[in-house]
Design a protein that fits this description.
about 325 residues; alpha/beta; Rossmann fold; 2 domains; eight-stranded mixed sheet; about 50% helix
């Protein structure tokens, strides 16, 4: 059955569409004999989920809370985040669901949220970076950064750096998990033009560039941090029917709605990476879809853009923009 599952998985990957829809999820779940959708007991573990007011973030937070984790929801809107925390608590039967209010596109807010998390909990087991949206028009933060890049690249990078000390003190390695997107397959690695200008701005392209940067930084974090302390993984959720997709890509949703994954299906691999103490802790720096590690390139053009020099430039750019204190690079970077 293992060989059959491998063959079917490779066949699903070739045309892309079946792989990313609920078809891919359902077939792989049966062939790979996934366990229960809700993980085993997570009592005593503290897990932070950003962007958890709806969609994939809410599904992730709810399933982790159901399993017994103390779940901290980070959101920029106090009312929405408070309601989301109450909903997660109600669905899970857990009273230990805490909101933290921060706009992750604003670096000062990220610093304040990190300080609050360190002070309140002292130890974190998992941080799930899920915040972000696909914007139709270019918006700028108080520092002049484009909002998509700020919320999905700069903010998460700074938050990770500030939380590393409390992620590495538990009885098992901490985990930093990033919800990326298959949209990143469409673009190469951009550095000097990572943030699009008003004149060139296209929301879908800006989103793809940010998601590509996320996946690259995930690999670079894994190079710099010993996986006995903290592991890093990025997730492609497939094509899921979420409020974000309905708002940003209404035509796409209308055409593919019967085949779109539910938020629970889209969140499954994220929940597994956060909760399972087997394969998710055995490696670091992976890009996952349906509980299997995947290539980060499908096109020769994107692979050619992903050079060691450009990777170093991306890292240096993000460090400079955020002022993050980061571990040293142990060896020269290599492109995949």
């Amino acid at each position: 059955m293992s060989n059959l599952a491998d063959v079917v998985d490779r066949l699903l990957e070739v045309p892309i569409a079946p792989s990313f829809t609920r078809i891919g999820h359902d077939i792989r779940r049966r062939l790979d004999h996934w366990g229960e959708s809700t993980p085993a007991s997570l009592d005593g573990r503290v897990m932070v989920v950003t962007g958890a007011t709806s969609g994939l973030g809410a599904a992730t937070a709810t399933r982790l809370a159901v399993a017994g984790a103390t779940v901290v929801l980070v959101g920029r809107d106090a009312a929405r985040t408070g309601r989301a925390a109450a909903d997660v608590a109600a669905h899970s039967g857990r009273s230990v669901v805490a909101p933290v209010i921060a706009d992750l596109s604003e670096l000062d807010a990220v610093r304040a949220a990190a300080a609050e998390l360190r002070d309140r909990f002292g130890r974190l087991d998992v941080v799930v970076h899920n915040a972000g949206a696909l914007l139709a028009d270019r918006r700028s933060t108080s520092t002049g950064d484009e909002a998509t890049v700020a919320s999905q690249v700069l903010g998460p990078f700074l938050l990770t750096s500030l939380l590393l000390p409390v992620l590495s003190v538990g009885p098992r390695p901490g985990r930093v998990l990033t919800m990326s997107s298959g949209g990143m397959y469409s673009t190469g690695l951009h550095v000097t033009d990572l943030q699009m200008t008003v004149d060139t701005y296209r929301g879908t392209e800006q989103y793809a560039r940010a998601k590509r940067a996320q996946v690259t930084l995930n690999e670079l974090w894994a190079r710099r941090v010993d996986r006995s302390a903290v592991v890093f993984h990025a997730v492609h959720p497939g094509w899921a029917d979420t409020p974000g997709v309905a708002e940003a890509l209404p035509t796409f949703r209308t055409i593919l709605r019967p085949l779109l994954r539910t938020p629970d299906q889209g969140a499954d691999t994220m929940v597994w990476l956060a909760a399972d103490d087997g394969d998710p802790l055995a490696t670091s720096g992976g890009f996952w879809l349906d509980r299997r590690c995947r290539t980060i390139h499908r096109l020769g053009s994107t692979r050619r853009s992903d050079t060691p020099a450009r990777r170093r430039q991306l890292w240096d750019l993000v460090v400079a923009r955020t002022g993050a204190d980061v571990p040293p690079d142990p060896a020269p970077a290599t492109a995949p």
